[in-house]
Amino acid sequence: MIYEASTGGGVGLTRGRSIPGRLNLGLSAAQMAAALLIFEGLSQATAVWQMGLLMVGFVLVGNAIYFMLHEAEHRVLHPNPRLNDAVGTGLALFFPAPFALLRQVHLAHHHANRTPDEAFDLYLPEDPRWWKTLQFYGLLTGLFYVVTVLGGAVISLTPRRVLSRLARPDRQTSAVIRLLNPKVLFWVRVQTLGCLLFHVAVVWGLGVPLSWYVATYLVFGASWSTMQYLHHYGTPIDRKEGAIDLKMLPGLSWVWLHHNLHLTHHRYPRASWTTLPALARRDGSKPTSLWRQYLHQWRGPRLYPDLPATSSSRSASLESAS
């Protein structure tokens, strides 16, 4: 089953009217074009400083692509579901990972947020602390990105019963495999092959040195991975309230589609990125310093549930989506 959190009552928004479809299509095209220009630059660069600038550029562009992909995962990139998923599939090529898998894993995140099945910063008494610590710091240092990228290939090539057996020692991985809808496995396989062919074509067609290409993705992956639990570390044990809004430079917040307003997003997961600032102001959100939260998360995992719980932690509204 794929899970999608509902917006809850009183949002004052309908998906069709609030989704800026044309704007999102234009931004998606610009983001993908910018990534291709960076790849072209990698093929022409002759100095290390040039490579460094291009890598920084891809950190900005690659994360922007992922945040637009995040809109597609919630089907708020475009009101037309088929076009939404088609553009999401194209954006996912640049990540690179199959859109069908990324969407399912992300919706499962909303379903299981801050529960033992999903909380990376918490461990149960029976959990091996060394494993949870290794897992969490792997997330902060980029290993999570490598695992996510390779995950599509592993799932594509491995029978589900074998996956379940291999994932059994790790609660989070087992939960993902358990929630994986068998109906999407065909598309996971097709899109994984598409990712492989796309990047072979880019490297071969543009003549990008493979070592620099891989290094660029690893730098991007480290930046992406270290932010993946930044918005959840140390937050209440609550599916909706277990997130935090963070302060970010206004320009960067717009480029990254206000992903820093993450508590607001969890409260209204079907609201378009363009509406998040207004919703945050309406709710009286008081964003926390991004850098303070970033440093705070390096304290590592803690015993579950050594955090404040809110009264709605068991009452998040869920609706299944096909």
Structure report:
By secondary structure, the protein is mainly α. 59% of the residues lie in helices and 5% in strands. It contains 15 helices and 6 strands. The protein has a two-stranded antiparallel ribbon. A two-stranded parallel sheet has the order 2-5. A two-stranded parallel ribbon has the order 3-4. Helix 8 (160-167) runs antiparallel to helix 9. The chain is globular.
Spell out the blueprint of helices and strands.
Layout: E1 2-5, H1 15-18, H2 21-44, H3 48-73, H4 81-93, H5 99-112, E2 122-123, H6 129-141, H7 143-157, H8 160-167, H9 171-179, H10 185-206, H11 210-226, E3 246-247, H12 250-255, H13 262-267, H14 276-282, E4 288-289, H15 290-296, E5 302-303, E6 318-321
Parallel strand pairs: 2-5, 3-4
Antiparallel strand pairs: 1-6
Helix pairs in contact: 2-3, 3-4, 3-5, 3-11, 7-10, 7-11, 8-9
Summarize the structure.
By secondary structure, this protein is mostly helical. It has 15 helices and six strands.
Summarize model confidence as the mean pLDDT: 86
Number of distinct helices: 15
Radius of gyration: 19 Å
Please trace the helix and strand order, writing H or E for each element.
EHHHHHEHHHHHHEHHHEHEE
Low-confidence stretches: 1-16, 310-322
Number of strands: 6
Strand content: under 5%
Major pleated sheet: 2 strands, antiparallel
Spatial strand order of the main sheet: 1-6
Attribute tags:
322 residues, two-stranded antiparallel ribbon, mainly alpha, 15 helices
